[in-house]
Description:
The chain is of the alpha+beta class. Helices cover 34% and strands 27% of the residues. It contains 13 helices and 17 strands.
Amino acid sequence: MDVVSEVLEMDSEIDGGADLTESRLTRRGSVDRFRLPDTLPLPLVQVVADRLTYSVEGIGGIRIDTEPPELVVTHEGGRSTEKLAELVGELVDESMRTRLRGSRVIRRTGPDDPRQVPDHPRPRRVDPDDAATARSVLHRAFDLMFLDVGREFAAAERRYPALIELEVMDRCRYIALFPQNAYLVDEFPHQRDLLGRMRDGTAHPEQLRRPSRFMLNPALCFHVYAEFQGNRLDGTTVLTTTGECFRHEAPWRLDAFRLPSFTMREIPFLGPAADVDLLRDSLLERVWELFVGLGFQGRVETATDPFYYSEDSAIRQHQLLANVKYELVADRPGGGTAAIASFNNVGDSLCRQFEVVDPQGRPAHSGCAAFGIDRWAELTLEHHGWQRERWPALLRHYCR
């Protein structure tokens, strides 16, 4: 239980569009409450919270209260509350200068959806060893399930490395748009005297390491553009690949549904605009059938990528207006939601950068369906428990 040792009530307005209304010290650190303008729409309040997460070290949690609109921020006790208030104000001011519509729900599960759900009560206690085994079985099963989805669309299989060259990611503008999630890779110089210093302890790794030309995969589909660079496509190309992805997350956000290293099964596709659009919608329909058949509840909604800079709000708005990204958002039995799949159509933006053209010589269009395997597994454990006989028959078919 938190013990409040000090509470400060504050009424003075902080420059920058946010008021610090309360600051208190607890065993977990400082807890500050920031009153936001009533005119700040909820989608922009979420943007402020997301950007604050990656704008300062030492935050232990952020909660959004809506009536009135407030951010409740837990952080290390030694951090300056005044500086944090200034930062919140800057983020609010930047957000107030942007226009952002909320997500639009495309479809939602209902009470009449058919489901293959066993009529068994969930076990009250879970043996950790059994749960760990079940998690591994589910991980493999869902990867096979979505591999089959790819095969239904004549996808050719690929295997890509965990590292990708920075030159490729620069073309995709990944670090320019999403620096908060990038994991860069360092290396030691191949010099005998320097490596010798590591061995005899006269040098620390921090003194000798240097940036390499690689980063860890934030997603697998970027490899596809490097593979097809400069190619003229014969028609529509569909691929499927699986592997580990890596994203730098704030420590307080990490849990079973948000990991710094996670497995993705992806189905990228390239070709003429009409074919790419049809493929994205067809993949969404097929996966929705699986989602409902597995007994899950949730919705498909328009979404955006996690742009860090306010200057990129126009891109965020375009993604929402042009239906660039759909996310499959699952309801979790204990409350809350989790995005477990995305269905993207990025137009010709990436193929143009890599000079990939369609049969008529025009920049090809591309898209990708991506599935967070770990999240599908965790969602199953929450809904159906760890015992295999309680899982839907649709899922048990893939348990090998």
